Amino acid sequence: MIVYKTTNLINGKIYVGQKPSMNNSEDFFASNYYGSGRLITEAVREFGEVNFKREILDFADTREELNEKETKWISKYNATSADIGYNLSEKTWPPPPGCGKDNSMYGRCAYDIWVEKYEAEEADRRKLLQLKKRGAYKGKDNPNYGNGDKVRGEKNPMFGKGYLKI
Fold first, then answer.
1. Beta carbons within 10 angstroms of residue 14's beta carbon
2. Which residues pair with 55 in a beta bridge?
């Protein structure tokens, strides 16, 4: 886990961040990751990646140590000052509400949720097909029974329109 600094070579502004998923400098420098903060991502988009330099400031063994070190480096560089840096906050921990275990997606995979939804829709579709096969929607039991006159002839929105002409 690393704490890094990204420097804008044009205006000198900096961003201090952490990357818990990377344990060595080779992985970090091989990636094109400059930071996930809103201001740094906008700056990278505006100035281009070639105008930013990255350097590793510190390493950590635990998430708690990583958060403490990042906070220390943000304070040391005064990276939350609008004139100096792109950081919006000195504290990176605790996470904002809705993160971690408070998040409705915590421990769930988006694919699993899609499968649950699809299976529920499929079950509803099967129920409708069974009702149709049994004749549950014949005659007066059909929800559209008696509505034919409402869309017949000139009352039909497509009356007199014909096919599209290209």
1. 24
2. 5
Q: What is the pLDDT of residue 102?
A: 66
Identify the pLDDT of residue 8. Answer: 92
What number is the average pLDDT over the span 116-120? 82
Phi, psi of 82 (to 5 degrees): -60, -30
Higher pLDDT, 114 or 74: 74
More confident residue, 36 or 92: 36
pTM above 0.70, yes or no: no
CA 159, CA 162: separation in Å to the nearest integer?
8
Q: Are 91 and 68 in contact (CB under 8 A)?
A: no
Whole-number Å distance between alpha carbons of 117 and 60 = 41
* Distance, CA of 137 to CA of 114 (rounded, Å): 30
Gyration radius of the chain over CA positions:
29
The answer as to CATH 3.40.1440.10 being correct for domain 2-93 is yes
DSSP letter for 80, please. T
Token code pair at residue 152: 């017949």
